Amino acid sequence: MRSALLLALAFTLACGGNDSEEVVATTGTGGEDTRPASFDWGKPMGDDLRVGGQPSEADLEAAAAAGVRTVISLRPEGEAGSEGERETVDRLGMTFVSIPVAGAADLTEANATALDEALQSSGSTILHCGSGNRAGSLLGLRAYVTGGATGDEAMSLATDAGMTHLSDALRAKLTELCQSAPDRCPSE
Fold it and tell me: Both 103 and 153 in a single domain?
């Protein structure tokens, strides 16, 4: 038992006391590790952000246990598959933020700014839509609008974060926005 406690303490110190995952310095009756499983939903986009499709209730429970504090949903109210998410997030003690993005028409500067504001004040966060496509697209637009990214950098970030079939719409929006700064336009 003592060696298991020392091992858990050594793990905590080696990991720098990572606040995003609770480390429990105990073992089960059979000596097995009782730390919560690491949170493995979505795509990590830095230390405090994961992006993807609709998380399940089990994903949200694991997220809360791992220290996620905010869930940002881009799914419009009533979109099939998102029923009960807000209630689950509230029950788990996390903050729910809604920025409805139904499709290409909602890739706007206002929504990119709203996403930036939510991410600036949220700590460890999940950003999602139904599949990750809208989430990746809006994250790329946010990088351009509020982060000074070039159009190519924004497109690359959006693709890395899960954008798929909204790439033409995002490229068109970035091209529209870059008219006053041609050096920031995405390449064709």
Answer: yes
Angle between helices 151-161 and 133-147 (to 10 degrees): 150
User: Which CATH number goes with the domain that contains 60?
Assistant: 3.90.190.10
Query: Average pLDDT in the 91-106 region?
Result: 97
Query: Does residue 138 sit in the same domain as residue 151?
Result: yes
Q: Note whether 22 and 82 are same-domain residues.
A: no
The DSSP code for 96 is E
Q: Round to whole Å and give the CA distance between 111 and 78.
A: 19
Helices (H), 35-132: 57-65, 85-91, 109-120
Both 23 and 83 in one domain: the answer is: no
Domain assignment of residue 78, given as a range: 38-184
3-class SS of residue 53: coil
Mean pLDDT across 6-29:
29
Same domain membership, residue 87 and residue 15: no
Checking phi first, is residue 34 left (phi over 0); if not, alpha (psi -120 to 50) or beta?
A: alpha
Among 1-5, 85-89, 114-118, 184-188, which is the least confidently predicted range? Answer: 1-5
Residues 5 and 92 in one domain: no
Classify each residue of 99-120 as buried b or exposed e, where b means 16 or more C-beta atoms within 10 Å of its C-beta. bbbeeeebbeeebbebbbebbe
9 pLDDT exceeds 80?
no
* pLDDT, tens only, 56-91: 999 999 999 999 999 999 999 989 988 999 999 999
